[in-house]
Design goal:
By secondary structure, this protein is mainly α. The chain has one domain. The chain has ten helices and two strands, in the order αααααααββααα. It has a two-stranded antiparallel sheet with strand order 1-2. Strand 1 and strand 2 form a beta hairpin. The chain is globular, with a radius of gyration of 16 Å.
């Protein structure tokens, strides 16, 4: 019988491998100004999280340091997907919906109580800032959006995919970071 952890050990390496590509796909959505502001802010907040110096799991933690970033992108996509996205071209909508659907795997991994705390945390990112850029400015100021887009592209180009071994201890450590750092 396959457990949630078994599924995660299979899925999480793919999420880490695709982190740069996922960021670029979401950037393509954020840049569409005809979309509802709430959708763009949900995505920009999630994407801006990648640039936070203090996040839930420090990026330097070998195998798991970028998994929180991958989780945040999926929850940001799920939040954005709740909005009316008629202006979104088909391929961009498909990419967004794929990431949004994967938020269910995050919920299964964290468990409902911890996931609810994480969902609140991600929702608050839409009102946050990183590298001196407020999410509201990313979504309303062309110069700030251009600077943000350049940072996203630079990150995606230079992203070093970590090796993720299929070790259950990594999952235990990952859950422990979320338990300890997410506000109650």
């Amino acid at each position: 019988m396959t457990t949630i952890d078994d599924k995660c050990l299979d899925i999480f390496p793919h999420w880490l491998n695709n982190l740069g590509d996922d960021l670029l796909a979401l950037l393509g959505v954020v840049e569409i100004k005809q979309l509802p502001l709430e959708a763009r802010q949900a995505l920009a907040g999630a994407m801006n999280y990648v640039f936070k110096s203090l996040d839930l799991v420090p990026d330097g933690i070998d195998e798991i340091g970028y998994l929180d970033d991958a989780f945040v992108l999926r929850l940001g996509a799920a939040r954005a997907a709740r909005e009316k996205l008629d202006a979104l071209p088909g391929e961009k909508l498909a990419a967004l919906e794929k990431l949004a659907a994967e938020a269910e795997q995050v919920r299964d991994f964290l468990g409902l109580a911890l996931f609810k705390r994480f969902e609140t945390y991600v929702g608050n990112l839409a009102r946050g800032a990183a590298r001196g850029r407020a999410v509201s400015d990313i979504c309303t100021n062309d110069d700030v959006l251009r600077d943000f887009a350049a940072d996203v592209r630079s990150f995606a180009k230079g992203y070093q995919r970590p090796n993720f071994s299929k070790d259950r201890r990594s999952l235990i450590k990952l859950r422990a970071f979320f338990e300890a750092k997410l506000p109650e």
